[in-house]
Amino acid sequence: MVRYSTPLILAALGGMYSERGGVINIALEGIMLAGAFTASVVTIFSHNPWVGLAAAMCAGLLVALIHAVASIACRADQVVVGASINMLFLGVPALVSGALFQSTGSTPQLPREQTLPEMHLPLIDKIPVLSQLFSGHTAITYIAFALVPLSYFVLFRTRFGLRLRAVGESPEAADTAGISVYRMRCAGVLLSGALAGIGGAYLSIAQNSLFTRNMTGGRGFIALAALIFGKWHPVGAFMACLLFGFAEAVSDQLQGVVPIPVQLIQIFPYVLTLIVLAGFIGRAIPPRAIGTPYVKESR
Q: Whole-model pTM?
């Protein structure tokens, strides 16, 4: 559950910053793919997973910058921009991988020493249940969990968080108060890109040891669903990600154990996503100005 929920937590927290600022980020799936592919390729050539992780974050920032320029500066439809980015990165990794490694399906397998190492906590390692939950994970998992209270503090206890929420609720009032709506929204989108890029890197150099085509498998959309289910709140999104991570873990453990076709077991997390959205989306109230491009009035 903890391992499966890690990339979801990072992507959901990233989406929270973007959407709290008023920009819909459907591009989380594409950003995660960009981060996963970049992390794998850079690690192959640098032989250092930490360099690959940093490169994945930069790739996420670059893709998010494209989103920000198109959605904020050019005032394009945010859903269309996000969908376009997702479709773009379904094909770009295969194209580049074919040019670099003569394989469009996957990158070469990384040696174990070139993947992110697992960290064991000395005291917790001796406690049976806690050791399985909180020990033996990579640094990205601990970063993801630490970002939950940090994001709560940033969003609700800092000037940056107050301004970000202000431009997502009433950009006109924020602009009147001297807050740069464009700058704050751009910051939110870039933060989402950095976090989703790290989430993608987790898939290719921590959970797995290679990049495979479309390896995110819809996790960006599940993270978006978790964000909506969690009502755009860091703790709520975190709990929703744990729920979806638990569903994926159950789906994985049931394969070959119960007399049910594997295909039906594999769709369980996605069915849960649909049930959650159908049952709770009506009760989740998004930021008031989300999805609405802001046009600064001339004075």
A: 0.92
